[in-house]
Amino acid sequence: MSVVIGLLIGAVLGLTGAGGSIFAVPLLILLLDLPINDAVGIALGAVAVSALIGTISNWRAKYILWVPALTLGLGGAFVAPVGKYLGSQLPEAILLLGFCALAFGIAAIMWRQAVSAPERASVVRSSQLSEDDYRVPICRFTQSEQFDLSSKCVAALISCGFVVGLLSGLFGVGGGFLIVPALLYITQVSMRQAVATSLLIISVVGSSGFASFVVANPQLDWVLLLKVCAGGLIGMSVGRLVADNIAGAQLQKMFSLSLAAIAALTLFSQLYS
After folding, report:
1. Shortest CA distance to 51 belongs to which of 25, 80, 13?
2. Average pLDDT of 65-82?
3. What is the pTM of this model?
């Protein structure tokens, strides 16, 4: 069952470049009966590994934007252990409620985007943004096609990293649902570049949160983690192979409904068990 969970995580990451981890925690709770803090830790490790494999592939394709990735990623990596510590201090019921509220919010955003901007839902295969989608970015490209690292640009990227890191540490989510829109808003990049860059950021932030989890939980079930990671790698490969053919608004709606349903089921099962 742990391999199946990994397959689902990897498939979502491969299809959308984000979102796999938000499924991981409830699946680990429901199917393996893990406490939420353990589920968060396992999810962080599995998503970090899957995102790293995706990053290696994107590295070869030269889609990754290193400056915003490292700036945002290091900001998130700095805060992720803080989020993990805060999560370990909260009652499990409160942490579960917070996670489910986040999942419902993400599901609503995904559904709204699929309805109002279906071209944005084809994340993996999208090219440049249309003129209607364009916003004046905080970070601009210079004439030499390099990022102009103004203080405003750096502050925006680091601030976003702090938010991503906090949520990642607290709830075991990779943060791609925040990273991709943030990169599109702040920088002048294509959707494909934003997705590729988000995978690197997810791997950095997830690794930081997972490292803090391992320090606090030396009795980690490494066999379980390896099984989930193995499934994630297979799922990532399959997802990336079929992404160009099926990614789109209908798929995003399906993910949205699935996420809302599994969050509701997790909440019900834990509060009324």
Report:
1. 13
2. 86
3. 0.77
